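Changelog-linked ticket: magnesium ion example.
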Amino acid sequence: MSRVATKELLGEQLRSLKIPGAARSVESLARQAREEKWSYEEFLSEVLAAEQASRHESAVRQRISEARFPEVKTLDTFDFGAASGPSAPQIAELCGGSFIDRAENIIFAGPIGTGKTHLSIAIGVEAARKRRRVLFLRAADLVRFLVEARDARELSRLQRKLHSIELLICDEFGFVPFDRVGGELLFNIIAERYERRSVILTTNLSFGEWPKVLGGDEKLATALLDRLAHHAVVITTKGKSYRMRKRLDGDAPSPPPTELTPKTPRVK
Ligand code: ADP
Ligand code: MG
């Protein structure tokens, strides 16, 4: 068998067996193997390692896309010097993801523009890179999906789907108040996850203001906070909006705030 024919046949075989990562690297690995006189076993192991790496990468890409981050933010673009509240070692620890193993929560509380969403996404991206199931939703969208699902008699399906998510990021709790039904549906999701699945919640409200979002229902607000905060790291961000400060410092204008970007991801 000629080398060219073998090369073509090999590529075809690997593709038809759905081993595309190996198909992409087999030729250059074979060249390297000849030059460096690898054993057959070494060569085969390198080809399989290429396939493993490619599968890992596509699984991570898939997890990140399923998480529906409004944009992908990471820690390397976060300036801890400009942030007051979160510390770099604490956030790095959370990016390690052990809080997800322990089904613990994170609450980011603080004024607008202080990096709550950025840090939540960064932690979520790291979790997705570890192939965890992550979902990012604004609190208002989450409640809307729950209400819609209930109206369509599909609530338990959505609840099951949400429960399969290992890290639920509920952003902007407090921007939009909920009616009683919405508040109770949100409470059910949080209560269901208690000690079983992790939540990251971001809010611009102090804890005393929570009833305001839940139609003035003090009991519901206390019950919600109780479930969320029992095993939670609470990170309070402080200070002026990072974007505003940048603008006042005379930097180039920032892109439009993510909060204003219309986005209505479907989770059903
Ligand atoms: P919040 O969710 O607290 O309202 P965001 O996380 O959306 O704030 O931050 C607003 C914008 O400012 C985003 O573009 C974010 O990337 C940026 N930002 C906020 N704090 C920092 C920081 N300390 N370093 C770098 N960028 C920051
Ligand atoms: Mg935000």
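Closing comment: Example verified and attached. Residues 34 and 43 are 9 Å apart (CA to CA). The chain is about 55% helix and 10% strand.
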